[in-house]
Structure formats: structure tokens, C-alpha cells
Specification:
Distance between the termini: 60 Å
Shape: globular
Radius of gyration: 25 Å
Largest sheet: 6 strands, parallel
Strand order of the largest sheet: 4-3-5-6-8-7
Number of strands: 20
């Protein structure tokens, strides 16, 4: 094989076409099926980005690697294929760790690619030198450095395959600058890429013993108060059809986690979201599909759950089941496991029926809570609280019909209220702070959604603090003309400006703004206007309705700055006990 360290290799050598490391990486990515990439270019990866574009990979260029990383991770969730993040070396890699760790925590397939310093200069204080393999270790399921150009295809295919296998997560590829400049003949490159196909994941299979499927069905059949809980793992597995069959055949009420919302419509008559406390507190058997018994589900423990509840846990990861120690654990892809459960039920059907005491209890409680919420939403409060604009947004989104917009939500009060008020009717149309409660994901997620689902409008409902983490990416929205409308709930700070008690306002810096305060009534809408987007400032129901109607119809980048009463929300949202 031809091998050279010439930093400016010729395109032909001895009448053979010659490729450098950048071209071979791009060729390997395209060969695996990658067609989208997110990132920030610079030394030493600019050529890699342009080479990838020339091979049909769309590159979305960001201002900050954190946002690009969040976009890559969300793209992996929305498409089921690894999202790819490209960063420069050293600090670029460190910034990218936000997205990589977010992918690992949420179990979304993502591959971060970083350039790194010349191998011969490592340890001597080279430009942006960092032991990047060591840096990414806590945040990735697989990491590898290509030490020569010949190793590139195998490294690329391994990382992409491992990102989506088993429990999905983040993987890392490290390409030293000297490897990027090495060269190889095109024929040898083709051979190496073809050989790397051996790493591609085979079809998913489920080896759950039939006895376990039978036991799961028996538990559900004989339960007095069964409940089906599903999360974003079920969404990633595309399990909505099988979940629908299971609910319709058995009549069992269901409860989605926040990003499981929409797999079955929130408006479904068996939805238990509005009766959550009753559902989890009284159920005696819970089938949990693609959702972890972590803090979001109160660890599956009393007092939120009954001490006698029997969990049937469906998870792709055996270690997760071993950690949670459920009554019954079924290891496998959510969709495929549910197919087996549905087949078992079909052969010997059962259904609770609408008059079943458990179904009636859930239904009645849900209806009562919905009536109470609607009574609150019916009050038009100005200056705005959180409920009044949220209802207007809900109604505007509902009026769009199908395909429903993808909703992105982050913030404390904004996200908490939005989760209760906004309605999801279609799968994978809600992205929020997720398992890690990550703030700053908003604009990255918006861009991922626009790239993954170009036929859908993207609507972000953000607190002003959450928006601030990635606000500069509104320029990216305008540059690519993504159909994204960002609605900022502007209450003047984290949780709502200065909420200090008099005894907390003391010391030599007592006249400084509070740690939670931002500039009151900040003009966030003018930020997007600086780049040619559309901005709206609203403070009344009529102004908000007009801005939503105009921006939703235009399907162009827009920011709607909604001025909220700074005292309307609660500190830390619903997690006050942790602050």
C-alpha cells in the first residue's frame, strides 16, 4: 500500500489516484451510510468536512461544539442511526464531551470525531495537545485512535456499529493530524473500506425464552391493577405499533415518560398521564418498556410506588435489568419483545374493558384532573403567568394537524408546565432535557429535528435561561433557513429573577444583580433579527396568537419573545427539594 506523510499529496501517483486521510475518513463514513454531520471546523479537520460534503454528507456548521454535540445525539434518537459530531482537537474535543455524555446518558447512538495533535509531538506541548482517548473514556462506550491511514476504515466502521448496538450510546474516533495527511492509493482504500464491512451490525434478534414471555403475559392477565409504562427507549425502538396493539387488545392503562409521549396519543382514553400518582401508586403489575427505573420514575420504590408492585422490565441491556432487580426481566429490543408478547396474548386473549374498576378509577381521576387544569387554563392572566401563553401555544400547535411539529422544551418552570399542558399525538415529537436534565440542548435539538424531519415544523418552548446557553445558534437557523420557531418564556432570569429574602441581601456585593437575575424584559427577539430572521415581542394573548399564526405559516426561522411575570413560577420548578 502506498503510504506517505506529505502534507500536500498529489491526487495521482504513478497513474494511480491517491487519497489522503481526510478523504478516506469521508469515504468510510459515506460507505457506512452516514449522510449528515454536525460540528465546528478548524485545525486539523476542515478538509475532512469539505471532503465529506463532496461525497454527499450534509455538514451542518455550528458556532459551538456543545450545541453541535447535542444536535448529533438528538439526531441519533430521531433517526435511529448514529449522529456524527466533528470537532477540532483539544478544547474542541472537550466542548464536544457535552454532547457525547448526553448521548451516553440518554442511550442515543452518537459518534464524536476529533482531530488531534501530531503523534510524534505528543507530550511535548504541541498545539491543542490533549490525551483525548483518556478524556472521553468516562463518556463513551467505545473509543479508538487511528495510528495510521490503514486503520481508518476499521476504526470508523467499528465506532458507528458499536454506537447503535446493544444499549445505544456515544463512541469516539481520534484522528491525529499526521494520519490525516498520510496518503493511500484509491484501490487500496476501496479494499480497506470493503473489508471494514465485517463490523456492521447484523439484524437485531430477541432470545427471550418463551417461558418468560408466557410469565409476563400471565402476570398481566391475572393482575388486578396492571399498568404499561414506556419511555424513550421504546420510542427509539419504533415500538409504537406494538404498544398500540397491546393497549387495544388488553385495555390496560398506560403512562409515558416525557419523551415517550406521543408513541400513543396523549388524548387516548387509556392514557394515565393526568392520573399519574394514582396509576403508579396503586398498580400491582407494571410492564415497563424502554424506560429506566431511575429518578424520573422514582426508582420504582415506595412511597410513590406500592411496595408490592411487580415490575416486568423490558430493556435492551441485561446490566440495567440486573441493576433494578425487577420481578421479571426481558432482555431485548422493545419492539421485538412486544411482538412476542402480543403474539402470546393473541393466542389466548384477555381485555379489562371500560367498566373494569381499575380502568374506571384511572379514567375518572384523569378526567377530574383535566377539568381542574382546563379551569386554570381558561383564565387569561396578564401580565402572563406560565399557563396562559402555554394554552395559546397548545391550541396553535393543535391547529396545525398532521404531521405534528416536533416540540423542543427546556427550562425549569417552562418545561414542567409545558409537559402538563402541551399535547403529543405522534411518535418522537418531543425532545426535552431528558435523563440528565441537561440545560442548553434547545437550539441543538431544534436543528437536529429540522435536519431529521424536514417535512415537520419545529417549535421550541424555552425558558430564557435555557435559551441563553445556545442562543447564538439562531444564526445557524437563519443560515440554513430551517423551519424553526423558538418561543422564549422571558421571566428575567433563572426561575424568575431576584427572589432573595431580605436576610439574603447583604455583604459587600449586595447591590449586584441576584445570581438568578438577567436583564429584565431582554430583547431576545432582536438577536435573530440581526441575522435576517423574524423576531416578535409579545405580552398579550392577541399578540401571541398573531405571532404564532404568522410564524407557523411562514415556516421560517423566528424567535417569539414572550414576557412573563418574573414571580409567576417556582424556584427550581418541580425539583425545589433538591435546591
Amino acid at each position: 500500500m502506498a503510504d506517505s506523510t506529505d502534507p500536500n499529496p498529489p491526487t495521482t501517483q504513478n497513474s494511480q489516484t491517491i487519497l489522503d486521510g481526510n478523504q478516506l475518513i469521508a469515504k468510510s463514513l459515506a460507505g457506512f451510510g452516514v449522510d449528515r454531520m454536525f460540528g465546528v471546523v478548524g485545525i486539523p479537520v476542515t478538509s475532512l468536512a469539505t471532503r465529506a460534503v463532496s461525497l454527499g454528507v450534509r455538514f451542518i456548521a455550528f458556532h459551538n461544539e456543545q450545541s453541535a454535540g447535542y444536535a448529533a445525539s438528538a439526531y441519533g434518537f430521531l433517526t435511529g442511526r448514529p449522529g456524527v459530531l466533528l470537532t477540532v482537537s483539544g478544547p474542541g474535543c472537550v466542548h464536544g464531551l457535552a454532547g457525547l455524555s448526553n448521548a451516553m446518558t440518554n442511550a442515543w447512538p452518537t459518534v464524536m470525531i476529533s482531530g488531534s495533535c501530531d503523534q510524534k509531538d505528543f507530550g511535548r506541548g504541541d498545539f491543542q495537545e490533549l490525551d483525548q482517548i483518556a478524556a472521553v473514556k468516562p463518556f463513551s462506550k467505545f473509543s479508538v485512535k487511528a495510528k495510521s491511514i490503514k486503520e481508518i476504515p476499521d476504526c470508523v466502521f467499528q465506532a458507528l456499529a458499536k454506537a447503535g448496538s446493544g444499549r445505544p450510546g456515544g463512541c469516539y474516533l481520534d484522528f491525529p493530524s499526521d494520519v490525516l495527511h498520510q496518503t493511500i492509493s484509491e484501490s487500496d482504500a476501496e479494499s480497506l473500506v470493503a473489508a471494514a464491512e465485517r463490523f456492521r451490525e447484523s439484524e437485531k434478534v430477541v432470545n427471550v425464552p418463551s417461558s418468560q414471555i408466557e410469565e409476563a403475559v400471565s402476570l398481566l392477565r391475572h393482575a388486578e391493577r396492571p399498568l404499561i409504562v414506556f419511555g424513550k427507549g421504546a420510542a427509539f425502538a419504533r415500538a409504537e405499533d406494538e404498544l398500540g396493539k397491546l393497549v387495544e387488545r388488553t385495555g390496560i392503562p398506560f403512562l409515558p415518560t416525557p419523551m415517550g409521549k406521543g408513541l400513543l396519543p396523549d388524548t387516548h382514553e387509556l392514557a394515565a398521564t393526568a392520573a399519574r400518582s394514582l396509576a403508579i401508586g396503586k398498580c400491582d403489575v407494571a410492564l415497563v418498556v424502554g424506560a429506566r427505573l431511575n429518578w424520573l420514575l422514582h426508582f420504582g420504590e415506595p412511597p410513590k410506588w406500592s411496595k408490592d408492585v411487580k415490575f416486568i422490565l423490558v430493556d435492551v441491556d441485561k446490566e440495567e435489568i440486573e441493576l433494578r432487580k425487577p420481578h421479571l426481566g426481558l432482555v431485548g429490543d422493545a419492539k421485538l419483545v412486544l411482538e412476542k408478547i402480543n403474539k402470546e396474548i393473541k393466542d389466548d386473549p384477555f381485555c379489562l374493558g371500560k367498566s373494569h374498576s381499575w380502568v374506571e378509577a384511572i379514567s375518572n381521576k384523569a378526567k377530574d384532573n383535566v377539568v381542574k387544569m382546563e379551569a386554570q387554563l381558561a383564565k387569561e392572566v396578564v401580565p402572563f403567568n406560565f399557563l396562559t401563553p402555554m394554552k395559546i401555544i397548545r391550541d396553535a400547535i393543535s391547529g396545525l394537524g398532521s404531521p405534528a411539529p416536533i416540540l423542543v422544551s427546556e427550562g425549569a418552570n417552562t418545561m414542567d408546565v409545558g409537559r402538563a399542558v402541551l399535547v403529543q399525538t405522534e411518535p418522537r415529537t418531543r425532545l426535552d432535557a431528558g435523563t440528565w436534565g441537561t440545560m442548553g440542548v434547545g437550539l441543538g435539538y431544534c436543528i437536529a429535528a429540522a435536519v431529521a424531519s424536514p417535512d415537520r415544523l419545529v417549535v421550541a418552548v424555552e425558558g430564557d435561561s435555557g435559551f441563553g446557553f445556545s442562543a447564538m445558534e439562531v444564526e445557524t437557523l437563519v443560515r440554513y433557513q430551517f423551519p424553526v420557531v423558538v418561543i422564549v418564556f422571558n421571566n428575567g432570569g433563572v426561575y424568575g429573577g431576584d427572589r432573595r429574602s431580605p436576610d439574603e441581601i447583604s455583604g459587600p456585593y449586595k447591590d449586584d444583580p441576584a445570581p438568578t437575575s438577567f436583564v429584565p424584559s431582554a430583547g431576545y427577539h432582536t438577536l435573530i433579527e440581526a441575522f435576517g430572521g423574524k423576531g416578535y415581542l409579545v405580552g398579550t394573548p392577541e399578540e401571541l396568537k398573531s405571532a404564532l399564526s404568522e410564524s407557523f405559516s411562514a415556516r421560517k426561522p423566528a424567535v417569539i419573545n414572550v414576557i412573563i411575570d418574573p414571580y409567576a413560577g417556582a424556584e427550581s420548578g418541580r425539583l425545589q427539594h433538591k435546591n
